[in-house]
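hiii, so i know i said id send this last week but things got crazy w the move. better late than never?? heres the sequnce for the chain we talked about at the cafe, plus the structure i predicted for it. fair warning i was half asleep when i ran it
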Amino acid sequence: MRKLSLVCLGLLVSMAALGVDLGQDAEPLGDVEVRVALDSTEQAGTASATVRIHAPPEVVWSLITNCKEALVIVPGLVACDVVDQAPDGSWQRIHHVLDYSWYIKKLTYEVMMRMEKPTRVTAERVSGDLKTMKVTWDLQKVGDDTLVSYVVELAPGFWVPHWLVRLALKRDLPKMLRTLRSRAESAAQHH
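okay and structure toks below
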C-alpha cells in the first residue's frame, strides 16, 4: 500500500495558494474549528483546524497516510506518488501535483513525511513550487473518538489573490476534514 499524508499537503497548498485577508482569525464552522494567522503581506501564514471523528486513531491514520485516499480527500490534488520510503515506514518522500484552480498555476512539489504511528504525521516541503510548507497532523484518542488537529505553515513564494485564500479557508479546509471524517467513520463501521 502506498502511503501518503498528502491530505496535509493538499490542504496546505490550497491554503498557501490562498493568502487570507485575515490578520488573525478564529472561526467555528459548526463541527470544524479553523484558525488563521497571516503575515503583514497576507501571502504567508499558519492555519489550524480541529475535528472530532467517531473512529479509532488507527483508522484515521490509515487514511491520512494513503496516497489514493489523499486524492479523494484533498481538494485539487491530482497526483500523489511515493518517491522513496523507509523500510520501517517511519518516513516517506512524496511527490504531489495540485491543480487547485484555473486562477493558479498547477503546483508540483515534494515533501518529506515523518510518521509516528498512529498519533502524528509531519510533512515538510523539500523541493518544488512552494517556498515553505510544513504540515502536522495530531491524532488523539478521546473515548471512542479521535480528535484530529491539523496545522499548516505556508508561504507559496508567489502572489495569490486574497479572495481565493478566503474561499479555500472557509470552504475547502472544513470540506477536507469533513471528507476525512466521513471516510473514517464509514471505514470504522466496516471493521
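btw Strands lie at 24-29, 32-38, 45-53, 77-85, 91-98, 107-116, 120-128, 132-142, 145-155. thought thatd interest u
miss u guys!!
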